[in-house]
Amino acid sequence: MSNRKSVWALILLILAVSMTMAACAPAAEAPAAAVNLVMWSQDEPALEEAIVAKFDAWAAEHAPGSTLEVTHYDTENLRTEFQTAALAGTGPDFMWTVNDHAGPFTSAGLIQPVDELTDLSVFVPGAVSAVEVDGKHWGIPVSNGNHLMLIYNKSLVATPPATVEELIALKDSLPADIQPFAYNLNEPFWLVPWWGAFGANPVLGEDGRTPTINTAGMVSALQLVYDFKYTWEIVPQECDYDCANTLFKEGKVAVIINGDWSLSEYREALGDDLGVAVIPTPEGGSTPAPYTSGKFIMLPNTLEGDKLDVVVAFANYLATEEQNQIDLNVPFSRLPAMAKALENEAVTSDPILSGSALQMAAGTGMPPQAEMRCVWDSIRPNLEAVMGDAATPEDAAAAAQAAADQCVADLE
After folding, report:
1. Using H for helix, E for strand and C for coil, what is the string for 57-113?
2. Crossing angle of the two packed helices 372-387 and 216-226, in degrees rounded to 10
């Protein structure tokens, strides 16, 4: 009998302790209110479907009864449609979009900063700086990249050129019917790695607002691309994006400079012959520094209450959970924005993504300020003049500076 009493006493003691611990334990987080959300996106339909699937699974536990509807736009239409809708007091609950939109959206006061809504320290620096305007950050990074890199055909080039001198030398080692090098000759975005290599960043000055184009570094970059065409004759005489893209996929050009958005297409076209490397370093310069950006979740300044709570929680779930970063980027040949996720085996074991990551690490966040449009618009015609042998690099840099200054003045 005494043994039975002892057993019951032990059971009662265990129950008492358990109840005490339960009483002291923090209460489980209550599910958020059910909300119906609309996201505007300019991304691939397959990725948009993946986001909805992630939301449905997440909401079942954290915001039961909530729904997510995606409306797709191309990049420019998303910008104009959101500006129009926001001014009318309508529009999406959040956006999945590019860093470029941070500039015009903040200038118009249409989105809210995210500094207090997420832990920006977990992301790679370039992803954070790409949405920085006036000391605040206007988007939660979900992918990083959108950067240019050297992409090569292993069946034509065993070892990618590490320097411009080695790039030039390809001309003598390839069959006569194979072009050594191709890229989008007249588009300023393709000039960025070279002006970065020659120290011409920041192109908006230290204040992030003043165009700084007429510099020695910019002149050197313009001279280099001129020499590609006229002095060394290693690029097609006339070649835009479609031209370079087609030549590479058809095996008629050995190396190309293109962005991470092209990698899935090139994997399909070249298979195991596809290689990725850092853009060659020019003489007198450093490692070329392309602009990096990626995709970001942006929040209208009207978002509040239960919807704000759910959107922020879901955005952080996507952006700061390592597996989500892998799921939403690696299948699309993109790099995660979360620094820790770049160390994931899914990235490091993939020679294409790991090569892309090396170039991304050398890049710099693309300025999102509205003044950047003035930089692009002023450089484009002057780059075309250099590539058409109608202006010297020195004159082109000076003319671009004058045009950008006038453009910024017109914005004020």
Report:
1. HHHHHHCCCCEEEEEECCHHHHHHHHHHHHHCCCCCCEEEEEHHHHHHHHHCCCECC
2. 40
C-alpha 152: how far from its chain's center? 21
Q: Is the pTM of this model over 0.90?
A: no
Q: pLDDT by residue (tens digit) across 30-65?
A: 788 999 999 999 999 999 999 999 999 999 999 999
Q: Which fold has domain 148-288+370-411?
A: D-Maltodextrin-Binding Protein; domain 2 (3.40.190)
Which runs of consecutive H residues, i.e. helices, occur in 110-226? 125-129, 164-173, 192-197, 216-226
Q: E-assigned strands of 188-284?
A: 253-259, 274-277
- The pLDDT value recorded for residue 412 is 76
Which residue, 40, 96, 78, 55, is CA-closest to 295? Answer: 96
Give the CA dihedral 264, 269, 272, 273, nearest 10 degrees. Answer: -120
Sequence-separated (6 or more) residues with CB below 8 Å from residue 347:
326, 330, 335, 336, 341, 353, 354, 357
Domains of the chain, by residue range, sit at 36-145+293-365, 148-288+370-411
Surface-to-core class of residue 125, CB atoms within 10 Å of its CB (0-12 exposed, 13-18 middle, 19+ buried): middle
Q: Which residues pair with 97 in a beta bridge?
A: 296
Quote the tokens at residue 36.
């119906």
Domains 36-145+293-365 and 148-288+370-411 share a fold: yes
Work out the number of other CB atoms within 10 angstroms of the CB of residue 130. 31
Q: Closest Cα to residue 382, out of 362, 401, 358? A: 401
What per-residue confidence (pLDDT) applies to 25?
Answer: 38
- CATH architecture classification, 36-145+293-365: 3-Layer(aba) Sandwich (3.40)
Residues 92-144 have pLDDT tens digits of 999 999 999 999 999 999 999 999 999 999 999 999 999 999 999 999 999 99
According to the model, what pLDDT value does residue 258 have?
97
Least Cα distance to 375 among 253, 242, 244, 208 occurs for 208
Beta-ladder partners of 297: 96, 140
| Mean pLDDT, rounded, for 78-95 | 96
Q: How far apart are CA 48 and CA 63, in angstroms?
A: 20
User: How far is residue 111's CA from residue 198's CA, in Å, rounded to a whole number?
Assistant: 35
